[in-house]
Amino acid sequence: MSRIGKKPIEVPNGVKVDINGNNIAVTGSLGSSSVSFLDGVKLNYSDNVINVEPKTEEQQNIAYQGLYRSLIYNMVIGVSQGFEKNLEIVGVGYRATQQGTGIQFQLGYSHTILFEAPQGVKLEVVDPTKIKVKGIDKQVVGQVAADIRKLRSPEPYKGKGIRYKDEVIRKKAGKAGKK
Fold first, then answer.
1. Cβ(53)–Cβ(61) under 8 Å?
2. Cα 134 from chain centroid?
3. What are the backbone dihedrals phi and psi of residue 65, each rounded to the nearest 5 degrees, phi first?
4. Which of 65, 88, 110, 119 gives 5 a disulfide partner, CB atoms 3.0 to 4.6 angstroms apart?
5. In the 3-class helix/strand/coil scheme, how is the chain assigned residue by residue?
6. How many CB atoms are located within 10 Å of the residue 104 CB?
7. By CB neighbour count within 10 A (0-12 exposed, 13-18 middle, 19+ buried), where does 44 fall?
8. How many Å apart are CA 101 and CA 90, to the nearest integer?
9. Strand duo 32-36 + 102-106: pairing
10. Which CATH number is 3-80 given?
11. How far is CA 23 from CA 18, 112, 126, in A?
12. In CATH, what number does 83-164 get?
């Protein structure tokens, strides 16, 4: 049985849940999100608690129970609190500046890079070497942060590049030299 799927989802005050057939819509102070789920699971919503249960004891339905419980939980957290990823830029001359809804990067290339924020994601430059990616969809926030990190991945010798805030870069030893 799915341990995660068995956990009930507490719905905080100010969040509205609407279950309509095989669709669930969650609306909160930061926005709204919806997902359609398969016939293998059923949702019970009462007293601000959502329970996800498999319709049958088939292995696939039990797996769907954990999947949809996680998706619905992330939707509830996203519309009430939101998700955030913090990135740091390390390197001499590497910096970022806010350009409307996007960010302009100077990352040691011969040109600057303009990264536009997709819909539903807010990019914020805290200072020239720190960036925040915010949004209500956990998957989209993580993907945007990964796309920004890919512009200049941290290199293993000096650690220069864009990294997540608490990411540890394992550094390699340089050339040992001849004797």
1. no
2. 8
3. -60, -50
4. 65
5. CCHHHHCCEECCCCCEEEEECCEEEEECCCCEEEEECCCCEEEEEECCEEEEEECCCCHHHHHHHHHHHHHHHHHHHHHHCCEEEEEEEECCCCEEEEECCEEEEECCCCCCEEECCCCCEEEEEEECCEEEEEECCHHHHHHHHHHHHHHCCCCCCCCCEEEECCCCCCCCCCCCCCC
6. 15
7. exposed
8. 23
9. unpaired
10. 3.90.930.12
11. 8, 43, 38
12. 3.90.930.12
Burial (CB < 10 A; 0-12, 13-18, 19+), residue 110, is exposed
Tokens of 148: 């920004």
Cβ atoms 17, 28 nearer than 8 A: no
Mean pLDDT by 10 residues, the chain (179 residues): 83 93 92 90 91 90 92 95 96 94 94 94 95 96 96 93 93 75
How confident is the model at residue 135, as a pLDDT?
95
Domain boundaries, the chain: 3-80, 83-164
Tokens representing 174 are 């340089």
Q: Are 137 and 83 in contact, with CB atoms under 8 Å apart?
A: yes
Structure tokens that stand for 33 in this block? 């999100």
Answer whether 0.85 is exceeded by the pTM. Answer: yes
